[in-house]
Specification:
Blueprint lengths: L1 E6 L2 E4 L4 E9 L2 E14 L6 E7 L4 E3 L7 E6 L4 E6 L8 E14 L6 E3 L2 E2 L3 E6 L1
Parallel strand pairs: 2-12
Antiparallel strand pairs: 1-3, 3-8, 4-5, 4-9, 5-6, 7-8, 9-10, 9-11, 9-12
Length: about 130
């Protein structure tokens, strides 16, 4: 199992900023690479949606609603992804979830490196007041 630990959520006024962080790790072994890391969000009564994603090579994609306001960056050496959120709006209020997909790991014990897929963090609440 790949663990994703998120931090940085909270309450902020409209127009303010927050920075989310998400670090990936394995309990017994190591991570060699992560093909994609991203942030999704889910507001009450709505489906989970992609906010931003960064690929291992550095390419990114964003939801139209956050373009120009949010910036996603990845640190491959630390297996960590960051989401800088500026000019926050009340409609950005949601639980934000970190995702890691196609993770190349090597577990302690027998067996070689292997790919593991589709892991989620526990979620962090972002609330933007008007």
């Amino acid at each position: 199992q790949v663990q994703l630990v998120e931090s940085g959520g909270g309450l902020v006024q409209a127009g303010g900023s927050l920075r989310l962080s998400c670090a990936a790790s394995v309990a017994s072994g190591r991570i060699f690479s992560i093909n994609a890391m991203g942030w999704y969000r889910q507001a009450p009564g709505k489906q989970r949606e992609l906010v931003a994603q960064v690929m291992n090579g550095g390419s990114t994609n964003y939801a139209d609603s956050v373009k120009g306001r949010f910036t996603i960056t990845g640190d491959n050496a630390k297996n960590t992804v960051y989401l800088q959120m500026n000019s926050l709006k009340p409609e950005d209020t949601a639980v934000y979830y970190c995702n890691a997909d196609r993770v190349l790991t090597r577990r302690t014990g027998p067996g070689g490196p292997r790919y593991e897929y589709d892991f989620w963090g526990q979620g962090t609440q972002v609330t933007v007041s008007s």
